[in-house]
Fold Ribosomal RNA large subunit methyltransferase E.
Amino acid sequence: MARSKTSKKWLDEHVNDPYVKKAQVDGYRSRASYKLIEINEKDALYRTGSVVVDLGSAPGGWSQIVAPVVGDSGRVIASDILPMDSIIGVTFIQGDFTEEAVYNEILQALDGQQADSVISDMAPNLSGVKNTDQYAAMYLVELALDMARNVLKPGGHFCAKVFQGVGYDDYVRAVRESFQKVIVRKPAASRPRSREVYLVGKGFKG
């Protein structure tokens, strides 16, 4: 079947993307790794001993860089609807995060511990209908914020991919209600034409 012009353009862009090539050289599972590396350098979301919840983790680009930093004294609990190859130091829960059973499984994996950070690179499967996709994306980040409010320790951090559009401004306000400082990041590895930004919440009010 012939590819559409849009999918061909995306494929050409992906193949020629310097971060895709760099990820292959550096052994990272995803170009998204560089987004979190840059954000963490600026905002110190996790360190040795941190307990981190990674939502929308597959193929593992974020967990892969967090786990060695938090080390044996820390923990990474990752979840995605898609399968993810195992990573040393990462507890992976496969399932639909929007389902209560999966949400509860993440809570059980924490085993009463509070998290230092909740990070989310979740995005819905895109339908191509702009408003539908935006509502689906906002629903996921609202659930991520709900998870953060439930599991973060006071002073903890939050980082979530958000798409600018309907509901974005309200969401920023909601994050500001729960965190002492909120920063909007657009990492270099994020494609300029993409509407995605990363909202960083520092200092959970608890």
Notes: Strands lie at 51-55, 75-80, 90-94, 115-120, 152-163, 179-185, 196-204. The mean pLDDT is 91.
